[in-house]
Amino acid sequence: NELSSLLLSSCEDIHVTICPLLIVSLCLFSDVAVIYPQDPVLRMGSNLTASCWIHPDLGIHASSLFWTLNGQQLPNSLYRVLSPTNLSVTLAGLNASRQTSGDNLVCHNHKGHILAGSCLYVGMPPAKSVNLTCWSRNTKDLTCSWAPGGKGETNISTQYTLKYKLRWYGKEKECEDYTHTQPYSCSITRDLHLFTPYEIWVEASNQLGQATSDVITLDILDVVTTDPPSGVTVGRVGQLEDQLSVRWEAPPALKDFLFQAKYQIRYRLEDSQDWKVMDDVGNQTSCRLAGLRPGTVYFVQVRCNPVGIYGSRKAGIWSEWSHPTAASTPHSERLMSGSCDSKSSGDSNSTLRRELKQFFGWVRKHAYGCSSMSMKMYDQWRVLMQKSHKARNQVGSPRG
Ligand SMILES: *[C@@H]1O[C@H](CO)[C@@H](O)[C@H](O)[C@H]1NC(C)=O
Ligand SMILES: *[C@@H]1O[C@H](CO)[C@@H](O)[C@H](O)[C@H]1NC(C)=O
Ligand SMILES: *[C@@H]1O[C@H](CO)[C@@H](O)[C@H](O)[C@H]1NC(C)=O
Ligand SMILES: *[C@@H]1O[C@H](CO)[C@@H](O)[C@H](O)[C@H]1NC(C)=O
Ligand SMILES: *[C@@H]1O[C@H](CO)[C@@H](O)[C@H](O)[C@H]1NC(C)=O
Ligand SMILES: *[C@@H]1O[C@H](CO)[C@@H](O)[C@H](O)[C@H]1NC(C)=O
Ligand SMILES: *[C@@H]1O[C@H](CO)[C@@H](O)[C@H](O)[C@H]1NC(C)=O
């Protein structure tokens, strides 16, 4: 009993422990108590019977012990006293580990002191990884990402290796640069071959098994992406209440590598989540948005797709969208300033709107998008319209 109190007083009273357990080293002697099996790796849904054996010199009876799993006391009904110094617990239908460092199965004396612990690693053998996709930023790397194929394989430590070889004469190689903010991705940055197809796949393995994904084949030149356009500015088009002009700069890499580009613009109302996309912008670096609501804030983004890289016929991969840029259209009231007859101004407002609608119908039908030709015509048309309204209002005001 002297030994017992000596041993136990040197054990720290830790109720929450993170695996891997260092409990035993916290005690002066490592053979005070032992849990069997130590740190097992098990399949989800399997059953486990673990035992806690205590040194007879401690003078403790096994029936006075209790078990915890992740700090929660397990009910007595799961225990069996195998001998005066050996207590077992049976867990049926094990859940996946909460963390890859394992779940804490701990044996305590009646005061709650920790006598011994074991880490349970519960998961599944890996399934084939899925959704393997790759892209190349400015042809300077080849980055691939994938998703684990099965539930439960990520609950225990699982190694994923991206492997690749050049078709025809390649030797199998492993991607090494996993240092990404994104999990399940890897970048190949050296010895890139721009004109030879790559075969790429993922191998997953853990202590319960291993799996190899389907192989994808690709040419780097077909999966090129670039940075989003920079210097995006959005401004008013004079007093035109339903238009905004968007300007941007081509990503520098486009010049360095003689890519061409096509662009897309998307815009939305300040308080809406619905984006409208203009995808026929072509390779210009400015564009006019038309048919907008007067006096309204719009958010605008632009993205870029490098095309025709080294003569490749395939489109590349769209860049990220640029950071949103906001601008507001002018208020429609300004158009009507100079009018003092509310009735006639209301009439002219609705007349103008009807005509506008007709004009836009015509524009969309004949030259939707960024055709500068139709925009020029439209501007001229608008100026004419505004002049005629002013004239009408001036004629009308003496009457009002
Ligand atoms: C686990 O134990 C239950 C009884 O508690 C039994 O029905 C089941 O078959 C066992 N499962 C395995 C995988 O052994
Ligand atoms: C405790 O009991 C279990 C189950 O019978 C057994 O496997 C284990 O060896 C025992 N431990 C000791 C130290 O006797
Ligand atoms: C598994 O999780 C369920 C729900 O959280 C729980 O009721 C059950 O006791 C757990 N099983 C084990 C063996 O821990
Ligand atoms: C398995 O791991 C995932 C995250 O990796 C976690 O969200 C989930 O809760 C774990 N499953 C169980 C049963 O703890
Ligand atoms: C794989 O991609 C498909 C389609 O994009 C998606 O529905 C699915 O959720 C993805 N699977 C995983 C495991 O991410
Ligand atoms: C846009 O593409 C046309 C041919 O489609 C080309 O003539 C023109 O130079 C390109 N403009 C820019 C800015 O790349
Ligand atoms: C112009 O018409 C719009 C709707 O068509 C209306 O909301 C607005 O109040 C009108 N403006 C004037 C000055 O009448």
UniProtKB/TrEMBL annotation:
Question: Residues annotated as region Disordered?
Answer: 328-349
* A GO CC term attached to the entry: CRLF-CLCF1 complex
Q: Which domain of life does the UniProt lineage start with?
A: Eukaryota
Q: Does the keyword Signal apply?
A: yes
Sorted alphabetically, the keyword list is: Disulfide bond, Glycoprotein, Immunoglobulin domain, Phosphoprotein, Receptor, Repeat, Secreted, Signal
Task: Indicate the segments forming the Fibronectin type-III domain, all copies.
Answer: 128-223, 228-329
Protein's cellular compartments: Secreted
Q: Which SUPFAM superfamilies match?
A: Fibronectin type III (SSF49265), Immunoglobulin (SSF48726)
> Which GO terms are recorded in the biological process aspect for this UniProt protein?
negative regulation of neuron apoptotic process
Entry-linked InterPro entries: FN3_dom (IPR003961), FN3_sf (IPR036116), Growth/epo_recpt_lig-bind (IPR015152), Ig-like_dom_sf (IPR036179), Ig-like_fold (IPR013783), IgC2-like_lig-bd (IPR010457), Type-I_Cytokine_Rcpt (IPR050379)
| Segments of skewed composition (Low complexity) | 337-349
One Pfam family recorded for the sequence = fn3
Q: Does the keyword Ligase apply?
A: no
Q: Which GO MF term does the entry hold, naming one?
A: cytokine binding
Using the UniProt record, give the first listed, main subcellular location: secreted
Q: Which family does it belong to?
A: Belongs to the type I cytokine receptor family. Type 3 subfamily.
Protein name per Swiss-Prot or TrEMBL: Cytokine receptor-like factor 1
What is this organism's lineage? Eukaryota, Metazoa, Chordata, Craniata, Vertebrata
